């Protein structure tokens, strides 16, 4: 886990990249009903704005609230590192799915030129995104990003 603000920022950049790219591909696949090169292209084209939005939401809104919730209700300072990681990850995924599902609903409504279904799209996307985002975060993205992060930045090498 990151040890200071600079590490947290770098970790957030990498984690947001991983999660937003994967969830963009997943959502375009859901929307089109198929997975092919066009899906990856469409996901990649929508990625930059979604990434910036997600990173800002993560850094300025969700991270502090999620960590506060996790350390107040789910873990104690003497809890195992694994328990802390899982608790913070779960606490991050829930609000990020809610926020990014709203982002996706608004984006889809802009593309369609019809805002009458934003609420419906948002509410139906939340469970679809949650069932992908939580396992992906816990099983693939979290371990992968932590491994990459600590390989590039060994503990104690990134100054505060």
UniProtKB/TrEMBL annotation:
<keyword id="KW-1133">Transmembrane helix</keyword>
<feature type="transmembrane region" description="Helical">
    <location>
        <begin position="9"/>
        <end position="29"/>
    </location>
</feature>
<feature type="transmembrane region" description="Helical">
    <location>
        <begin position="126"/>
        <end position="145"/>
    </location>
</feature>
<dbReference type="InterPro" id="IPR021529">
    <property type="entry name" value="DUF2798"/>
</dbReference>
<feature type="transmembrane region" description="Helical">
    <location>
        <begin position="85"/>
        <end position="106"/>
    </location>
</feature>
<dbReference type="Pfam" id="PF11391">
    <property type="entry name" value="DUF2798"/>
</dbReference>
<keyword id="KW-0472">Membrane</keyword>
<keyword id="KW-0812">Transmembrane</keyword>
<feature type="transmembrane region" description="Helical">
    <location>
        <begin position="49"/>
        <end position="73"/>
    </location>
</feature>
<protein>
    <recommendedName>
        <fullName>DUF2798 domain-containing protein</fullName>
    </recommendedName>
</protein>
